[in-house]
Write the structure tokens for this entry.
Amino acid sequence: MGLGLQTSNGSGGEIVPRIQYDARAGRLHRIDRSQGADGWESTPTEIDFPAQMVFDMDTIEVGWILIGNGAVDFKMVALGEAMPARPTDQHKQGFRVRVYSQKLLAGVRIWNGTAKCVISAVDQLHNQYVDQQAANRGKVPVVEWRKPIAIKSGSGANTSTNYQPVLHIVKWIDRPQDFSAPAAANTQTPASAAPNGTAPTGSGHVPAPGAVQQQAAPQAAGAEF
């Protein structure tokens, strides 16, 4: 079973920590936000492969995402619910999932994607998750990002290359404390910070990390990450 592909907009609320994967370059970054002289600034920190983080596959969402010209719009539902109607021709199919690593990410962050090669990789990851879920009830998977695979499309002068992430479940652990954090009332990230293959985070069905994600690592499940 793959993804099978709440309502929010980009106005107001708390900035949600996130990661972004650039399908055109095959690079993964943690995005940190800070207040600068000219307002909020985004600072990317590259994450080298291989890298491990916990995925909250239990609360993954699918739906329609619009990013561009200053607009951020999510029409999302929990995986397994009926896909919402596509709001406009500009909205793209996408997913949203929470990830956790205290060492790499300083807590819980959101990963969104709309690029086809990225959705395909998460489809495959979800298949792994379903296959192993029965033997790991009450636990969450630790996923390893490996070196991306180059995917060529088109021909001649129209040839283009995207990089599909390679995601493998390497083990299962007890749910980290931070995954139990309550949802923020309204959360968002600015459209200007999202490259191809990624999507900023808005409020919605998946519980958003909130301020607790920036605290020290919990001395509980998942603390080794």
Notes: The helical segments are 102-105, 116-133. The first helix runs from residue 102 to 105. The CA atoms of residues 36 and 42 lie 10 Å apart.
